[in-house]
Structure formats: structure tokens, C-alpha cells
């Protein structure tokens, strides 16, 4: 694992390529999207055969398959799911937003009406691993927001089955609609609808490069959560940190995939050295060694900072998905953190705690996007409408200002809609009474 | 103006093409973006000469130009700007979000830390019209959110000048950094930076098709507000509405541009007829007749609904940018509206009131995107970070569940980072005291 100074790391970071450079993907993704838009289920099944290697008769998971899944997973797993769901609900209900209104002099009422998005689609990756935790993390905030229809889509395996863990999680979350579709074709189906798949207004959930690009393309026609990049962790450790914990947490990040970025920022040269040795030793006991070694080699960094404040500045410049403060007085130093998806405080709050059980969402801004975006939350599944009521007199009092501004913008008909209300006093008695 | 039933209108609406069909634009927009990324100011100036017809020495607006602008606009306009700013601030300060924390049994602390986005860029269109109101509507929420650096970019005219109204609005809002750059090249400069233009983390503001596509392309590297489409209004009028007001409000929408969509949904055939006549008469007195007639002909619709509840259902399916309820008891019927950017209640709350003076934002979701998005607000200029602190014992209590879920996902190193904390009790005394 490469060791370098904070200054050098930030220089190295400057040269990172941007996601818009992936444009070689776009041609194939666009082709997939337009085929699904034109041919619906037919195109979807054709691509499932092509990409997932299975010919599906039925795209929707049946009740029978749900029951098979439930018997396939053990009780301990179900208990874990239940604990996770309860904790995720407990945290996310704090995010619920209320509609509000204010009254201003002269009988003016202004407000903000909050309504849930009607239909949402959740993409859950398949392939090597399965992601029951992502089901809970994406579905529960939508439910708390009041979303009416939630559908999950996930690629089938070569036998046409989807992970029993994913189905058990869908059941635990109370979602009955699960589609066997993956990749860009699943995103297109959710965005534009097919005979089987009802179109949705927002698509959330992690996915591979094809899924990410497809989401970028349909964005605008539907909303999306974010363009997810490789997962990353940044651990700030001072001399008092436990190097075995630090190493284990960096490794838990590294096992995600080769592109994962495990970063340690430390003020202690000795910590840097000990963590390096720990990583070598602990790696030997781990299963996904090949992936881990690639991730450490390509993207793992141990960054030496002169002072803690340089360490914080470095972390803020990285804007990591996960930030662990393994230092003295982590709470006090929260004030120094401006850019991070999730912040873990102290020795016994490792990232996997947040990935699965603590309650906050594990869908977090990646690749430095924490400078502008937030964890997935209830706020992602509602929209707001402004509400404006002015009585006649109140309108008269601002009418001159409105007409001035409208004229400055060359929009005289805008001025006219105000003027006509001064000239013309007709309005039914019902509305008179209401508007004064 | 075409008259049709609600049912027929919704069928007609089905066939609307989506924004992703604009892909013929992409090649030129992508080319512009990569030139600006590679050559910075040089490319920016070259394109300003090409597209705006002026050779600029200096991209940034000078203090002298600000002063010239201030003397160029009259006092009444400045007063109008001040009224607008005060009302916009009064409404938007209600949107401010606080960080919050909760404590759970066992010494657990969870929370959500809210921080402003550090740097934001605001695009203001130039060309025929000028948009001082857009300056206030985009800048003020960012300021209330606590954004540190706000820069405005707007295309220069053939003399290399930018609108004095826009500069006066920038000054009223307290923004000193204004760049003379427009189109996709300005978006690229804000997203990736040039020698003169500091890169930002979020780009907001209206623009033409090139600007919209460029924003879509840079989205992911930076955040954007939305892909803005043509402006639209939907007026729900019952038999008691004032047809002269209804006509004037539809016309104020129609004058924006040929693509603007003025829609009337009414339960009264007589209202439909009277409004049609009114539109013909009032149009004759208006300046932008050519634009208005195109807009009415191409996109204007009078939609007949059997009942008010069909009218509400139709409006919710349209999800209009602006919705006016010119009916009896508009407040009571707010409960029936689920999809709209801004809702105007009663006879004396016409759209131009919201465009300029009432206080709620005039940057609203267009083209039906109100099904998933919201008016621009303070919430668009902050991001959230989850905060997680577990003491040792609390971690032990969920450790089994975490390990179960991690193993189900095949991520054994995740489990390891939990296990190692059970096996190993070392941690410095400072942290022991803190974590128990």
C-alpha cells in the first residue's frame, strides 16, 4: 500500500478522470434503452437471454418463489434482517418532512406542500454477490416517505432464479413486486415501462457501469438517486488508534471490488508502519484476497499528515463516502468535517456497522460527490409544491413592482395579467368573500 | 386554441417525446465541453467569439461595469428588486435545515449533519430578454444555505456587455463575481474550471437547449438543479372564474416562447368559449403576438372535464410547473393536488405574482417533472452527512446480526472488522473512557 504525504496525494488526486469520460459505454447503453422503449418485454427477454444467459417465460417473481426463498434462508438471517429493518426505520423516520404554511400581513398565505413520489423502482445487483441489505436501505426510506408503489428489479441467475436473500429482504420490507431484469435494460424498463413493468418516476439503487450510465441517460425523464462510483473509505487515525482495527476496516473496504479505495490519513509515522504490517498479516486470513490485493495496490493509500487539521483538510478534499474518525475526541472534531457521506466516530463504530445495522443509510455519495450530495433518505422520495395565496389588496400593493420587473424582462403580457386585475373588479361573490 | 376532452388530452400527452431523444445535440455539446476542459479560457473566448459574436479581453465583469449598470437602471426598478429580494428571503428562510442527533439506549448516538455546498455557479440566460429575477431566485436560497462562493455566468451581447438589469440584481443579491460566458461552454467552465473561472460543485439556473444538455452531461461530476424544459401553466377554472383573468394568465405564459404550454382545464363549456374569445381580443393588445400565437396554436389546450375531480386528476397527470386554482374553495381542494411545481390559489394570485414578487421560487419543475422534483430551494444547496457512534457494548449486541448479513453478501472481511473488536480489547485509555 503506497505511502505518501497529504500534499502529494492531493496532487495525485487532481489527475483523476471524470465519469463523463465513460462515453464509450454510451453507444451500447443508448441502443439497449431504445430497443426496450420500442419493443418492451420482447426486448427485455431477448437481452436477459443475451446478458444473463437465461430464457424467461415470466418476468415477475411469483408468490411460490417468495415462499421457496423464505424456506431457503435460515432463522438467524431473518432475525438479522428484522434488527436491521427496525434500526433503519428508527433513524429514517427522523427525516420525515411536514408541509408548512406561513401567514403574512394583509391575508397573504404562503406554504410548501410535501407529497410522496407516486411510483419508485429499486435496482438490486445480482451476479457474484447478493445484496439483501440494499433492499432494506432503498425501500424503507421510500415507504416512510409514503411512496405508493415500490418495485424491485434484479438480474436472474442462469437458472432464472433471483437470490433468496434478496427475496427474503423484499418480504421483510413488505415489497411484493420483484422483476427478473438487470443491466441497462432494467433501467430502461423502469423509466419507460413495458407490458409487464410499470414505469416509475424515480429509480434508485446500486449497479454496474451499464446500470450507472443508463441511469444517467434516463435522468430527466425520471429522477435517479445518484451516479454511484466505486466504494471508498477514509480513516483518520492519530497515534492512539488501534492499528489492528484500522487495518481490518481498510480491508473490509478493499474486498468490495478492485476499484474500491481504502485510504488512511494519519499524523503518526509509526501508525502508518504498523497498519501496513497488520494489513499484510490480516489479508492472509481473508477469502477475497485477489480483489483485496488489487484494490490496495491500485487505490489504497496511506497518507501522512503533519497535523490533525491537515488531516481534516485532506479528508474534506477527498469528500469520502465513509469517514472514520479514530482519534481522541472524535465528537469535538465533527465541526472540522465538511464533506463526507457518513462519519463514524470512535473505535467501535466501523463501517460495516453502518453498512448493515446502525440505521443510517448505506447508499452514500461516492467518488468525492459528497461535496454536493447526501446519503439516500426519506427526502429523496418526496417532492415539494409551493403554495401562494394573495388577496386582492395585497396583490395591488406589489403590482407596481411586478410590472416593473416584468417590463425589465420584456414580458409585457405578464404585466398585463396584473394590470387587468386592477382595472377589472369582477369576481364572483364566493371568491370575493374568500379573497378579502 | 384547441378544445378537447380530458380523456383525449391525456391520450395526446402519451405520445410526447422524451428529452433523451435530443441526442443529436450531444455531439456538438460534448465537443464544446472537451475543448473547454482541454484549453480553458482560450476555448471559452474562441467560442464566445463564435457564438456571441464578440472578442473578449476580459471574462470577468469589472467593478466599473457594475457601477455603469447601477446608473443605467432607474430607481423604481431598484425598489422592485429590493421588494422581491425581501419577499424571497422571507419565504426561503423557512426552508433552512438543522443538523440533528438522537440518542439510543446503550450510549448510541446517531445523527445527520447539514453543511452547505462550498461553491455554486448560477447560469443566467442572455439574448433577447434579460432575467434579473432569475438572479435573485437562484442566488438567495444558496446564500441562506450558507454557500461560501457564488458565481454568476451570463452570455455577453455583441458589444461585450451584459444586461445592466442582471448586474443590478447581482449587486442587490450581493454577488460580485459575474462571468461573461454563455451556452455549453459556460457550463463546462463552471464544472471543470478554467484559468479565470473557478470550478463549482453545483450549477443552477435556466438556459437554452445547449445549456440544458451540457448540464445533463456534466451531472455526476457536479450537481445540477434540473433539466429545464419549456415553461407551462395549467389553470383549473370552474363556472365562477373570471374569464378575463384566466385568458390574461394563459397569455402571460404563452409569451415566454413558442414552446410554452398554456393549458386550461375547465368544467364549464361556457367558460371554455368565453376564454377563447377573451384570448383573441386580449392578444391584439400584446407585444409578443407572434410568439403567443405559435404557443397557443402548437401547445395551447382547453381541456373539458366532466367534474372537478376529473379536472384535478388531469392536472395531476400533467404535473404542471404552475397550477392556478381559479375555483370556489381553492384551499379545501389543495388536498386533491399531488403533482405541481407551484400552486396559486384564487382570483388574485396569478402566475406573474410568483414569478417575481411573492417569495416562493420561480425555478420550478417543468415538462411534467413535478411528479418527482421540487422548486429550487435552500435544500438544494446543502448536503447531509450521517453520523454514527456506537460504544463497545452496543456494537457487541448487534455484532452477530452484522456478521450474518455480511456473510449472506459474501463479504467476510466486513465480518472480520466486527469480530476483531470482540477478540481484541486493546484501545487507549482515552478512548475507553469515551466509548463506554
TrEMBL record, chains A, B:
> Which amino acid positions bind Zn(2+), per UniProt?
253, 256, 355, 414
Q: Which domain of life is it from?
A: Bacteria
Question: At which positions is substrate bound?
Answer: 231, 253, 256, 322, 355, 409, 414
- Where composition is biased (Basic and acidic residues), the residues are 9-25, 420-436
This enzyme's EC code(s) = 1.1.1.23
Which cofactor is essential here?
Answer: Zn(2+)
Q: Name one GO molecular function term.
A: histidinol dehydrogenase activity
What's the protein here called?
Answer: Histidinol dehydrogenase
Which lineage is the organism of this entry classified under, starting from the top rank? Bacteria, Bacillati, Bacillota, Bacilli, Bacillales
Q: Which gene codes for it?
A: hisD
Amino acid at each position: 500500500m503506497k505511502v505518501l504525504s497529504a500534499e502529494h496525494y492531493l496532487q495525485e488526486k487532481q489527475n483523476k478522470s471524470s465519469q463523463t469520460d465513460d462515453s464509450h459505454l454510451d453507444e451500447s447503453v443508448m441502443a439497449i434503452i431504445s430497443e426496450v422503449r420500442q419493443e418492451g418485454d420482447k426486448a427485455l427477454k431477448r437481452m436477459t437471454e443475451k446478458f444473463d444467459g437465461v430464457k424467461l417465460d415470466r418476468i415477475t417473481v411469483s408468490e411460490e418463489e417468495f415462499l421457496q426463498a423464505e424456506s431457503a434462508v435460515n432463522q438467524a438471517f431473518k432475525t438479522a434482517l428484522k434488527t436491521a429493518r427496525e434500526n433503519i426505520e428508527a433513524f429514517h423516520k427522523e427525516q420525515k418532512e411536514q408541509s408548512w404554511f406561513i401567514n403574512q400581513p394583509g391575508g397573504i398565505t404562503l406554504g410548501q406542500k410535501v407529497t410522496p413520489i407516486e411510483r419508485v423502482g429499486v435496482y438490486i445487483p445480482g451476479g457474484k454477490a447478493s445484496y439483501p441489505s440494499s433492499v432494506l436501505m432503498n425501500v424503507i426510506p421510500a415507504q416512510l416517505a409514503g411512496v405508493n408503489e415500490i418495485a424491485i428489479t434484479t438480474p436472474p441467475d442462469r437458472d432464472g432464479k433471483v437470490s433468496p436473500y434478496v427475496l427474503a429482504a423484499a418480504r421483510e420490507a413488505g415489497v411484493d413486486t420483484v422483476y427478473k431484469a438487470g443491466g441497462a435494460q432494467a433501467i430502461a424498463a423502469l423509466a419507460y415501462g413495458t407490458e409487464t413493468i410499470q414505469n416509475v418516476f424515480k429509480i434508485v439503487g446500486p449497479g454496474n457501469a451499464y446500470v450507472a450510465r443508463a441511469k444517467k441517460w434516463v435522468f430527466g425523464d425520471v429522477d435517479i438517486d445518484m451516479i454511484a462510483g466505486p466504494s471508498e473509505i477514509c480513516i483518520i487515525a492519530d497515534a492512539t488508534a488501534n492499528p489492528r482495527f484500522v487495518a481490518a476496516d481498510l480491508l473490509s473496504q478493499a474486498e468490495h471490488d478492485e476499484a474500491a479505495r481504502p485510504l488512511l490519513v494519519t499524523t503518526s509515522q509509526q501508525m502508518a508502519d504498523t497498519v501496513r504490517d497488520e494489513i499484510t498479516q490480516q489479508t492472509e486470513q481473508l477469502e477475497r484476497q485477489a480483489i483485496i490485493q488489487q484494490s490496495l495496490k491500485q487505490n489504497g493509500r496511506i497518507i501522512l499528515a503533519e497535523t490533525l487539521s491537515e488531516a481534516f483538510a485532506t479528508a474534506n478534499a477527498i469528500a469520502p463516502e465513509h469517514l472514520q474518525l479514530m482519534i481522541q475526541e472524535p465528537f469535538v472534531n465533527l465541526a472540522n468535517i465538511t464533506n463526507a457521506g457518513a462519519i463514524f466516530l470512535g473505535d467501535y463504530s466501523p463501517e460495516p456497522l453502518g453498512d448493515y445495522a446502525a440505521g443510517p443509510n448505506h447508499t452514500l455519495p461516492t467518488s468525492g460527490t459528497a461535496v454536493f450530495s447526501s446519503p439516500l433518505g426519506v427526502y429523496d422520495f418526496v417532492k415539494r409544491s409551493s403554495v401562494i395565496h394573495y388577496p386582492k389588496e395585497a396583490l395591488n400593493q406589489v403590482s407596481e413592482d411586478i410590472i416593473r420587473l416584468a417590463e425589465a424582462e420584456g414580458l409585457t403580457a405578464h404585466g398585463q395579467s396584473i394590470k387587468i386585475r386592477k382595472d377589472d373588479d369582477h369576481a364572483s361573490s364566493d371568491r370575493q368573500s374568500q379573497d378579502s
